[in-house]
Amino acid sequence: MPEDIILFQPMGRRVVVDKKHSLLTMAEQNGVGIEATCGGKGLCGSCKVQVQGKVSPLGKAEADYLGPDADKGYRLACQTKALEGVNVWVPENSRLHQQVILTTGYEHEMNFDPEICVWELSIPLDEPEQTDQMRERILAQLNLAAQLGSDFQWNLSSALLQGVNEKINRSDGKLSVVTTMSGLCLEISTGWDTKCLGLAVDLGTTTIVAYLVDLETGRVLSVKAEMNPQVSQGEDVISRIALCRDRPDRLEKLAGSVHQCINALAQDACMEAGVHPGHIFETVLVGNTAMHHIFLQLDPCGLAQAPYTPVTSDSVEISARPILPESVPGAQIHVLPVKAGFVGADTVAVVLALDADQVTEPTLVLDLGTNGEIVLATPEKLLCCSCAAGPAFEGGHIKWGLRGAPGAVDQVSVSADSLVPELRVIGDGAALGICGSGLVSLVSELVKIGVVTPSGGFDPAWRCQHLREGTDGWEYLLAKKENTGTGQDLVLTHQDLSHLQLAKAAIHAGISLLLAELGLPRVEKVLLAGAFGNYLDPVAACGINMFPGVSVENITSVGNAAGAGALSALISRSQRKRAQTIARRMDYLELATHPKFNETFVTSMAFSERGDD
């Protein structure tokens, strides 16, 4: 963390340290919503945050209030001052505003052939049976129900047979047996109303989304989402990999934090659906390669250095019990395969959900964020790459940048005559900052008018009250302080322009090189996946020259396609096999060592508005 910056997470807001003011005051002045029921007097504890870095000493009253949490780095924001750059994690219970997390996925037809099945058996009630005899009866009934021959090998453990006679007597011979399609018996329960549930998890760098599914019908019962708690340890995958390299004990802690978060999401989803989490028999998880490795506690350090090779790229199955403690002993977590160091299982899931492996015309699939994954699909070929776009698309490193949350500007229109902006704010309240989609929208408007030049700077000839010289150079005024929620002017700086320019150039260069590799001048269809892609205005994106070889009318947002792919793999064995085929079939283009990348990146920097080529 830079010496003079406070980073409030999960909002992504950076604030210059002021040693005179408490963290709560700094948060309030900069649009970071932290609960403070008592008005910052240290009496309510609602402003509890977790702090990394050098801060003012812990007072006795604060220590008494926090108790054991003080040893975990928790402080009361109203009683704590930053003495240098610090990282501040605002827990969910302390946040005034909830982050906007994309949970809706691309809707498409999915085969329903789950790996987990419930067999409803009827065991004749006659003389008491020995355990070994009852085992044969149950296996015979399973073969009958599954229409399998007597030579099929079921794996029925002795532990599951404990108390089975009592279950039969209680239910007039009716038993439900939960098995995998490979023959592993997971549970024997009384009656014919056993719930059989699955969990699909999209483990993102910033957010985690969990879908609770009825595996007997394929119906989604509940969807829960939360910010990835690893954000408090590192804002992006590179910083988390560096943590694991410098502090080997951090790998276990990073993994443990997401394990706990996924368990909490599963518990919340089950509570909302009115079912017991012990009925979750299988989980399918997707994530980028770094998240995949950290979740599985595989050393991720090789992902950050050439040749960027994953420890494993195959699909992986692990026991669910360490992550979902209430699950049955045989419950598994299936993790989809990854392709390369920065093209992970989430990209495989996106291709699966969008049927990009079955296109009839050249199609571009983009999942844009701090790391941008791009897949160019043709009827003959799947070619992918990864672009290090940086955090600008998520509001990172932008002076008034925010992730999508109430108070963030997400769309802007600017009058060509007066340069007066019209803002759309998430939640319709006063503006607190600007998120990635709002940033692209604003800059596109300024490029169109000419306030921002093709080379990426402000044109001083437009100088007026909205384009002015600030303390750090030229800046554009979005909203005066009396109209914002922070009491400070909301501005776009020339440094903000540079960060966006670098991010969009990375995407532009990646697409250009993929097209060149396949000898294509353009594509017929573009599918934007992920949160940023879902809210991005295609006209604005093309207005800053982000996508080469693309017509605006051919761009479609498809929501959380990674989550949709995880769902598809959860409810369908054939889709799970198809995911393996996709990962093997895709070819990977390594941009970091591509001989033309630097040249292409430089030519991709221009903000000039693209024609209809």
| Rg from Cα | 27 Å
Q: What is the structural class?
A: alpha/beta
Number of continuous helical runs: 16
Tell me the overall shape.
globular
CATH class descriptor name of the domain at 197-335: Alpha Beta
- Average of the residue pLDDT scores: 88
How much strand? Answer: 15-25%
Q: CATH architecture of the domain at 197-335, please?
A: 2-Layer Sandwich
Q: State the assembly state of the protein chains.
A: single chain
Low-confidence stretches: 609-613
Helix content: 25-40%
Gist?
This protein is 29% helix and 23% strand. It has 613 residues and is an alpha/beta fold.
Question: Your description of this structure?
Answer:
Mean pLDDT is 88; it is low at 609-613. Helix content is 29%, strand content 23%. The radius of gyration is 27 Å and the shape is globular. Helix 9 (345-354) crosses helix 15 and helix 11 (494-518) crosses helix 16. It is α/β, with parallel strands linked by helices and 613 residues long. It has 16 helices and 26 strands. The longest helix is centred in the middle third of the chain and has 25 residues, at 249-273. Among the domains are: 5-94, Ubiquitin-like (UB roll), CATH 3.10.20; 116-190, Ubiquitin-like (UB roll) (Roll), CATH 3.10.20; 197-335, Nucleotidyltransferase, domain 5, CATH 3.30.420.480; 392-500, no CATH class. The strands form six sheets. A six-stranded mixed β-sheet has the order 11-10-9-12-14-13, sandwiched between helices. Strands 25-24-15-16-17-26 form a six-stranded mixed β-sheet, sandwiched between helices.
